[in-house]
Amino acid sequence: MTGHGVAGPVRLSDVPVLDATDARLLQALAEDPRATVMALSQRLGLARNTVQARLARLESGGALAPFDHRVRPEALGYRLGAYMTVQVVQRSLADVGEALADIPEVLEVTALSGVADLLVRVVAIDADDLWRITDRVLAIPGVQRTDTALALRRLVDHRMGPLLSRAAGQDPAAQD
């Protein structure tokens, strides 16, 4: 955790690769997030200690996202979502990332290759609130330019089910 109360940067190469048992465990958790370790061990036919150790390894290794990812911003009154691309003075990238983490309405920041340096997912109460947030981003030293696109509708919600099925060896399309 950083000093901002959010998870630190995730290096994609550091996240552990899951085996089929890990994938089955995560599938079971996705289907019943409140399942106890004992219930998971019975469902999967694994020892309780094995399930507990695997869950601990998955969590500490970064394979499991924090619980707050399940909370929808709309439930908190943030009905307007947007994606900002941000161009940054190259040597300021880390400082800009830290400053963005200080803005509560910034949900996620991803470094990109290409013309834009950062993709920033933000939420706002309304258009005036988005204007305020944009001004705050533009005031960060090192930010050169922003472009904002409103999120109109989510057509495919965040999902891992199809990939977990494939990793667990249960994807018929993967066996073609």
What's this entry about, in short?
The chain is α+β, with helices and mostly antiparallel strands and 176 residues long. Helix content is 35%, strand content 18%. It is built from six helices and four strands; from the N terminus they run αααβαββαβα.
Structural class: alpha+beta
Biggest sheet, in brief? 4 strands, antiparallel
Number of domains: 2
Q: What is the CATH superfamily classification of the largest domain?
A: Lrp/AsnC effector binding domain/regulation of amino acid metabolism (RAM) domain
SSE string, helices as H and strands as E: HHHEHEEHEH
Helix content: 25-40%
CATH topological fold name of the largest domain: Alpha-Beta Plaits
Instruction: Please compute the radius of gyration using only Cα atoms.
Output: 19 Å
Question: CATH class of the largest domain, anyone?
Answer: Alpha Beta
In percent, how much strand structure appears in the residues?
15-25%
- The counted number of beta strands is 4
User: In one word, what is the shape?
Assistant: elongated
> What is the count of DSSP helices, taking H or I runs of 4+ residues?
6
Description:
The chain is of the alpha+beta class and 176 residues long. It folds into two domains: 17-69, Orthogonal Bundle (Arc Repressor Mutant, subunit A), CATH 1.10.10.10; 72-151, Lrp/AsnC effector binding domain/regulation of amino acid metabolism (RAM) domain (Alpha-Beta Plaits, 2-Layer Sandwich). It is 35% helix and 18% strand. It has six helices and four strands; from the N terminus they run H-H-H-E-H-E-E-H-E-H. The protein has a four-stranded antiparallel sheet with strand order 2-3-1-4, with helices on one face. Strand 2 and strand 3 form a beta hairpin. Helix 2 (37-44) crosses helix 3 (48-60). The radius of gyration is 19 Å and the shape is elongated. The model is unreliable at 1-7 (pLDDT under 50).
